[in-house]
Specification:
Helix content: 40-55%
Order of helices and strands: EHHHHHEHEHEHEEH
Shape: globular
Largest sheet: 6 strands, parallel
Radius of gyration: 17 Å
Strand order of the largest sheet: 3-2-1-4-5-6
Length: 213
């Protein structure tokens, strides 16, 4: 019996993925077009990974130089400035409000995001959706760790929970914790799910039907 639904945020409840992509472009534009394209490709291929992990990977594996602590802090601060307002005002994913309204009160609802938790809570408050959720969780913990926290905190069994996401980190968190999974698959991300036995929706409102509620 379904008792809880976990939502990713970017690309699942809000059309905010491109806002963060553009932020990565602007942060590293001085590195040149070829390098920026590699950075953006890495960002897009690792949706749901926290910005902190991405910055460290970018410096180590793409830029191949040390990341001083003061530069790391500057990147984090500037990224937050570039993204926060845009994410707060980004249009919702088709059907998101309808889905939340129909599920609210029937099952427990959660957000598990790669966005820093304090920011994620603020975004949910400004967008006036925080009241739908029993818990809102974000980085620095991984999504797998956060799903485990939801299960233990709310005394839920894995087979009573479904994670709705749009990235491999969402799928991996569901697989590693044993929860169900539904992918929001649009044309740009359809290839992610090829060959995987994954339920897919384009509109989040379709999730209600997929969940049988």
């Amino acid at each position: 019996m379904l008792k809880a639904v976990i939502f990713d945020f970017d690309g699942v409840l809000a059309e905010s993925v491109n806002i963060k992509t553009e932020a990565f472009r602007r942060l590293f534009e001085k590195e040149g077009a070829e390098t920026v394209n590699k950075i953006v490709a890495y960002h897009l291929e690792h949706g749901g990974v926290s910005r902190f992990e991405k910055f460290r990977y970018i410096y180590k594996e793409i830029l191949r130089r040390l990341l001083p602590e003061e530069e790391f802090e500057r990147l984090c601060k500037r990224f937050k400035e570039l993204v926060l307002e845009g994410v707060m005002t980004a249009p919702e994913v088709d059907g998101a409000s309808e889905c939340l309204k129909r599920l609210h009160g029937k099952v427990k609802l959660f957000i598990v995001s790669g966005t820093p938790e304090e920011e994620m809570r603020l975004i949910a408050k400004v967008r006036n959706i925080e009241h739908f959720f029993d818990g809102i969780y974000g980085s620095p913990e991984t999504k797998t760790e956060l799903v485990r926290k939801v299960l233990s905190t709310y005394n839920l069994k894995a087979d009573e929970v479904v994670f709705i996401g749009d990235a491999m980190t969402d799928y991996d968190a569901a697989k590693e914790t044993g929860t169900g999974f539904i992918a929001r698959a649009i044309s740009e991300t359809e290839g992610l799910w090829r060959g995987l036995n994954v339920r897919r929706v384009k509109s989040i409102s379709d999730c209600v039907m997929e969940l049988g509620l």
